[in-house]
Amino acid sequence: MNHLPTESGRSILLVGASRGLGHAMAAEFLKKGWSVLGTVRGSNRTELHDLADAHPGRVEIDSLDICAPDQLTALRDRLADRTFDMLFVNAGTANRDPSQTIGEVSTDEFINVMTTNALGPMRVIEGLERNVTATGLIGVMSSGQGSVANNLSGQRELYRGSKAALNMFMRSFAARQAGTGRPLAVMAPGWIRTALGGADAPLSIEDSIPKLVDVLLAKLDRPGLEYLDYQGRTVPW
């Protein structure tokens, strides 16, 4: 694809951009003058394809299932000569009955949620960190429910545990990045009305994502790892 010049000249590799929060992030980065390479699962047409049609030359689409290591290897090979100013991994799923206690969750659902929410995103980061500029940002979409300190009510136990695991893995990754000057972000977007968040959530995508993108852009100038919400407030680990 021929890349058109953009106002910022910056680019983001956005993993999980087909719909929902990822698609909204792609649209917001375009508004900020960035170019976007977004990944989708499978070959079906998505909302990201509509966004690409509306912004010729500024949106690229590639395929990736973060739970499929062979697909990650193939993507890494395709992007071998590319660099980006930001890598952000947006991934999230829950078990069919989020009210289950952890002792009630089936082994298959445990593996699926933990792989999608924690292992998969970290594999992507480990596999694609070389494609991010030396001072570029690497971030993941976590959740406020991943905060161990803030868990005073329980509920959604498997989802909470998977996001807490993601946070811990990011802290381990950050420890290996110490002294590099790289900004790292674990983001809590708030409880949003999406397929995952449900109809009763208090926030719309429009309430959260523009602010979340602003937080990420500000974070570019701050090295190290931070756990932040969509308003830029620090979330306790």
UniProtKB/TrEMBL annotation:
It holds the Pfam family adh_short. PANTHER family: SHORT CHAIN DEHYDROGENASE, SHORT-CHAIN DEHYDROGENASE/REDUCTASE SDR. This is SDR family NAD(P)-dependent oxidoreductase.
